[in-house]
Write a structure and sequence with these properties.
Elements: H1 2-6, E1 14-17, H2 21-28, E2 34-36, E3 44-49, E4 52-58, E5 63-64, E6 71-72, H3 79-84, E7 94-98, E8 101-106, H4 111-117, E9 119-120, H5 126-132, H6 135-147, E10 150-151, H7 153-162, H8 171-182, H9 187-197, H10 199-203, H11 205-209, H12 223-236, H13 244-252, H14 257-260, E11 262-263, E12 269-270, H15 274-288, H16 293-305, H17 319-329, H18 333-342, H19 349-372, H20 384-391, H21 397-413, H22 418-431
Parallel strand pairs: 1-4, 9-10
Antiparallel strand pairs: 2-3, 3-4, 5-6, 7-8, 11-12
């Protein structure tokens, strides 16, 4: 209902009824193509019809034990009781479905007025609603991002008071909400609400901690706002819809700065090796949030590499350095391009133009090398079988060492012929004290 009123596309429809699950199954079985009972313990019956799938749920009047925060499922008989247990009033509206189609619009809790005002408020007192399920507090930040709403004053007050209770929620549920928040149209607003209310201290403390670190360029309020600006600018560079990996990397790329801050004798501030520290911090936080290994690897690698370009200077990188840049980025190269460009937030237009031109030049050199050799798959010029045959050794650690030597050689010098690679390998092998 909410998305329909906002004109937002929605693929699924939610239905609710006073009929109990067993009644629904009995009534629907002759009509439906298929029924699913995956959520039947919570009163939900899945229905398949003509290629479509919908869910119908019995009115709920749950109570919560206030300890585990798990609901004690109770079925209800009144729509009003079902709506009042929803998270926010904008999600507590309904349309009665009749045999002739849509009928009466039902809005007992003022959801339409809240929708028009773009305000998030709870159906019951926010202390009760958030006490029932603390994840609703993080959901408020998610809706601020997705819908570009604000929170009602009483909701804001409850968030400030109850934020620590978010620690009771499982990491998996928290991560799912954070992803939805980051993929919203205004994630900066959602993140800032998290940080300002203390929710961020519970689930993503590294972000709020960046408010302590003044950026070395002294052009931004602090590293925190610089990071949010980078996030916005990274979003502007997305060319195929929201990119979750890029957005996470943009948000977290400077989280290593507070731990590496150093006041220099000239009055400046430095953050040496903050990309290394930051990449480790990303791994630790995302592991705690139970993200996949691939997600953790991708985000941490982007954070680790985001400063590499600044060694490019006036374009004096060797071809070897360019190859290593591409090889280290691997399939993340296009995201790294976007992250590096987004990381330019200086207000000095001349300096910004120089940085853009320098990165344009680097991308051009990458394209030139790619036209001559396969930069996407930089591999040794000899494979494992050829190495074993040439050196007369069996499979084992020595083959791996030889392979790595040839990989470094390939990065340094580019493609070699089989004869050239064989000669270099034999010379290296003998230099290691082998006959």
């Amino acid at each position: 209902m909410r998305d329909a009123l906002l004109g937002r596309p929605r693929a699924d429809l939610d239905f609710t009824t006073d009929a109990r699950p067993e009644q629904m199954q009995r009534l629907l079985r002759p009509w439906a193509d298929a029924l699913w009972d995956t959520g039947i313990e919570f009163g939900t019956v899945g229905v398949g019809k003509d290629g479509h799938r919908l869910e119908i749920t019995t009115f709920r009047a749950d109570t919560y034990d206030q300890v585990s925060r798990n609901p004690e499922v109770r079925f209800g008989d009144r729509l009003d009781d079902d709506l009042v247990r929803r998270d926010f009033t904008v999600n507590a509206m309904a349309v009665r479905i009749t045999p002739d189609g849509p009928g009466e619009f039902l809005d007992p809790l003022g959801g339409l007025a809240a929708l028009r005002a773009k305000v998030l408020d709870t159906p019951s007192a926010p202390e009760v609603s958030f006490g029932d399920d603390p994840l609703r507090m993080l959901r408020a930040a998610r809706f601020v991002s997705q819908l570009e709403f604000t929170v009602a004053p009483r909701v804001l007050e409850a968030l400030l008071e109850m934020a620590p209770q978010l620690g009771r929620i499982t990491a998996e549920r928290v991560a799912a909400e954070l992803d939805k928040l980051l993929l919203g149209s205004d994630p900066v607003a959602g993140i800032d609400l998290m940080v300002q209310t203390g929710l961020g201290d519970v689930v993503l403390p590294e972000v709020g901690a960046m408010r302590m670190a003044i950026d070395e360029h002294h052009q931004h309020k602090d590293v925190y706002w610089h990071s949010l600006t980078v996030l916005r600018q990274a979003m502007d560079l997305e060319d195929d819809g929201p990119d979750l990996v890029l957005r996470w990397a943009a948000l977290l790329h400077d989280i290593g700065k507070p731990g590496t801050r150093k006041h220099e004798p000239d009055g400046g501030v430095s953050f040496h090796h903050h990309e290394v520290v930051g990449a480790k911090m990303v791994r630790k936080r995302m592991r705690a949030l139970r993200y996949s290994k691939q997600m953790i690897d991708d985000v941490s690698q982007l954070v680790y590499l985001h400063l590499r370009f600044h060694g490019y200077g006036d374009g004096r990188w060797t071809d070897s350095a360019v190859r290593r840049y591409v090889a280290d980025a691997g399939p993340l190269l296009s995201k790294l391009h976007k992250l590096v460009r987004a990381d330019c937030t200086t207000r000095n237009q001349r300096r910004a133009a120089r940085l853009r031109a320098s990165y344009d030049q680097l991308e051009a050199r990458i394209a030139e090398l790619a036209a001559l050799e396969d930069l996407a798959r930089v591999r040794p010029d000899l494979d494992g079988n050829q190495i074993m045959e040439l050196l007369g050794i069996p499979a084992g650690p020595q083959v791996g060492e030889a392979w790595r030597f040839l990989k470094e050689l390939r990065l340094d010098r580019g493609p070699l012929t089989t004869e050239e690679a064989s000669a270099e390998l034999l010379a290296w092998w003998q230099s290691q004290g082998n006959p």
